[in-house]
Write a structure and sequence with these properties.
The structure holds two protein chains of two kinds. Chain A is mainly beta. Chain A has no helices and eleven strands. Chain A is globular and about 40 Å long. Chain B is mostly beta strands. The chains are: A mainly beta, B mainly beta. Chains A and B meet through β4, β5, β9 and β10 of A and β3 and β4 of B.
């Protein structure tokens, strides 16, 4: 158990809808990272928050947004969903104190868009 | 971050050591080598990381060549539960928290045979 909690585990929704994925980082970790894994793309970095502030963006679509709250949990919002957004969405956390802290991943949310 | 090259797949007999190679010939002096694995759509699991010295923990050993251009992850006594995709990742170590995201390649699919 990595200590990173993601909810829900599974989500099925229709095209055009909006969903929110939630991530609770490990106790003491200040950073939250979001990744997307679809069958043909591998693990793709989406966005990174550190202590409430956005720190880096990867291949995140404009229809997607995220935030990190004062209690350090994070939410990833996906809107105007398309069939191609069906994927596993992983959250990772890291203490990010010093220069070499590894990321610890949750077990993901499986999103199916029908 | 330096690019890594891994064989797409490997087999190993149960109980034997699994040696997974990784080439990172363009690595620079401030880049660490990280290893993760992903077991069947679960979240990636952190295994080990190192800079230039060999490292060992309860899961595995990491051997980095003296010129740092390649490394080997060793699972000393592979079990069926070690069947997974193993990722070798190089990440620059920086005090800039905006440079901490990991970039995953396609990894090595290790199949442990009974």
């Amino acid at each position: 158990d990595s200590g990173v909690t993601q909810t829900p585990k599974h989500l099925i929704t229709a095209t055009g809808q909006r969903v929110t994925l939630r991530c609770s980082p490990r106790s003491g970790d200040l950073s939250v990272y979001w990744y997307q894994q679809s069958l043909d793309q591998g693990l793709q970095f989406l966005i990174h928050y550190y202590n409430g502030e956005e720190r880096a963006k990867g291949n995140i679509l404009e229809r997607f947004s995220a935030q990190q709250f004062p209690d350090l949990h994070s939410e990833l919002n996906l809107s105007s969903l398309e069939l191609g957004d069906s994927a596993l969405y992983f959250c990772a956390s890291s203490v990010d104190f010093g220069t070499e802290s590894p990321l610890h991943f949750g077990n993901g949310t499986r999103l199916t868009v029908t | 971050d330096a690019k890594t090259t891994q064989p797409p797949s490997m087999d190993c007999a149960e109980g034997r050591a699994a040696n997974l190679p990784c080439n990172h010939s363009t690595i620079s002096g401030n880049e660490y080598v990280y290893w993760y694995r992903q077991i069947h759509s679960q979240g990636p699991q952190y295994i080990i990381h190192g800079l230039k010295n060999n490292e060992t923990n309860e899961m595995a050993s990491l051997i980095i060549t003296e010129d740092r251009k390649s490394s080997t992850l060793i699972l000393p006594h592979a079990t069926l539960r070690d069947t997974a995709v193993y990722y070798c990742i190089v990440r620059v170590e920086s005090w800039d928290t905006g440079r901490r995201a990991l970039t995953f390649g396609s990894g090595t699919r290790l199949q442990v045979q009974p």
